[in-house]
Amino acid sequence: MNKKVLFVLTSHDELGNTGLKTGFWSEELAAPYYALADKGIDIVLASPKGGQPPIDPKSEDPSFQTETTKRMDKDTALLAKLKNTIPLTDIIMDDYDAVFYPGGHGPLWDLAESATSQQLIIEFYTAKKPVAFVCHAPGVLKDVKINGEYLVNGKNVTGFTNTEEEAVQLTNVVPFLVEDMLIKNGGYYSKIADWSPYAVVDGLLITGQNPASSEKVAEELLKLLA
Length: 226
What we know:
By secondary structure, the protein is of the alpha/beta class. The chain has a single domain, classed as Class I glutamine amidotransferase (GATase) domain (Rossmann fold, 3-Layer(aba) Sandwich). The chain has seven helices and eleven strands. A seven-stranded mixed beta sheet has the order 3-2-1-4-5-11-10. It has a two-stranded antiparallel sheet with strand order 6-7. Helix 1 (26-37) links the parallel strand 1 and strand 2 (42-47). Helix 1 runs parallel beside helix 7 (214-225). The chain starts with a strand and ends with a helix. The model has no long low-confidence stretch (mean pLDDT 97).
């Protein structure tokens, strides 16, 4: 498939005021990356600051490793791409067929507030190109509006659940809860059992519930690209 997809990663590495580090969740980059790249999709990585985006140290814990994260750890080409992500301000939407946002807690701080990111999502969506988000990444849609309406308003969506946030004990650390925000902005929010793979497609908008959903989101994106 001769298509080009932009992946947008966080540049934020501080977990609120906890003194702990955060970033993007490694599985949420690795699983979709290979699901698309193995089908011949050209993938470009970008982030607000450019350069090496922070990886959430928790996602590198042995208990969270998957076949795709192990593959990423040995993939010198992908690791080189990661070291040199393109600054978001340099991205031109016309160069891509879709955009994908991996999660991790980092995006709740920087990408959710980024006017550049918001504008990019609007450009992709209005150009009738798929926009995909997994886990905490639907949080970046918080302030995205088209013609004065929230993009998620009236759309079927999912994202990291309040109970999943509670389970990782960060309910009082994150700037907002993804589930609450999606409902508040008029989304028709649905979820299944915590930590189970679940993706929702509404037209060009694809959302996934948690890290386990990242490959599912990529599969739905592939269908739209085809």
